[in-house]
Design brief:
Layout (H helix, E strand, L loop, with lengths): L1 E5 L15 E6 L6 E7 L18 E2 L5 E5 L3 H4 L3 E6 L5 E7 L15 E3 L5 E6 L12 E6 L8 E6 L16 E2 L5 E5 L14 E8 L2 E9 L15 E3 L5 E5 L10 E5 L4
Antiparallel strand pairs: 1-2, 2-3, 4-5, 5-6, 6-7, 8-9, 9-10, 10-11, 12-13, 13-14, 14-15, 16-17, 17-18
Length: 267
């Protein structure tokens, strides 16, 4: 029903440069066309020049009620997430602004956008330059949960790589999430794996059991070459039921970017 896209270098209504915005289009009933419905500006508390809201992936819940957009340049690249909710009149309103827990400078929260579950109760975004367990630029994925219809999002968990890798930058890619929010997948494009092969990349899949996520699977690049950047940048996607994953390689110039599909089988 809705289509969304970021316009990161749009100025604010009061003339602040490059604050960014999110455009929302609605499909017209009985017609094969969309019309612009609303322009979502950042809240006044995030009205910072150069923050470029919407420069990366905009998430919309499957039920069309929730939208989340990232501004990874905000506050010296600490990053921020802005969440909007559709009210009873069909208008999207600012619901909440989210940040990495604690004070983390230059984590670049939401560097490649965010992911929402179908009902908008689970929200995830990567912080690829976060220092984790003393490892610089190891990266992580932050998960927020909303327990009731009108409750706020609270930070639920920080997903990290089971094998800390300097410059791995976990979350430096689009986050994939199943419709129920149980499965989350993302890549470590610049990580060193398989000995000294640099930048081969890998994808981590996390599954939640009783609300707690733990690493479930690891996928290496079938190409196996240095700097192929498997799982990086564009990242990938997870099917609604969590049974299918598609991730691509995105490496140096001259390397073919190839998508790979993975199927999960019961048992």
């Amino acid at each position: 029903r809705y289509a969304v896209a970021g316009v990161p270098f749009q100025p604010s209504s009061d003339g602040v440069n490059n604050t960014g915005a999110v455009y929302v289009w609605e499909r017209q009933q009985g017609e094969d066309r969309y019309e612009l419905m609303q322009v979502l500006a950042p809240p006044s508390s995030l009205n910072e020049s150069g923050q470029a809201l919407g420069e990366t992936v905009i998430a919309i819940s499957g039920d069309g009620q929730w939208i989340a957009g990232g501004s990874y340049r905000y506050n010296n690249s600490m990053g921020a997430l802005v969440v909007w909710r559709q009210n009873s009149s069909g208008v999207f309103e600012h619901y909440q602004s989210l940040f990495s827990p604690g004070v983390y400078w230059q984590d670049k929260l939401a560097r490649y956008g965010a992911a929402l579950s179908h009902d908008g109760s689970t929200l995830a975004a990567g912080a690829p330059q976060a220092e984790v367990d003393g490892v610089a630029n190891n990266g992580c994925v932050h998960v927020w949960k909303r327990e009731a219809a009108n409750s706020t999002f609270t930070h639920a968990q920080q997903l990290v790589s089971p094998r800390p890798l300097s410059l791995a930058r976990l979350g430096n890619a689009k986050i994939g999430m199943s419709a129920d929010g149980v499965t989350i997948a993302t890549g470590t494009r610049q990580g060193r794996v398989l000995g000294d092969i640099s930048g081969i990349g890998l994808v981590w899949v996390y599954d939640a059991e009783q609300g707690v996520y733990s690493p479930a699977e690891e996928y290496l690049s079938p190409n196996g070459g240095a700097d192929t950047g498997f799982g990086g940048r564009g990242g990938g996607t997870v099917s609604a039921d969590g049974s299918t994953l598609v991730f691509s390689s995105h490496g140096r110039e001259g390397v073919v970017n190839t998508p790979f599909e993975y199927k999960r089988h019961a048992g």
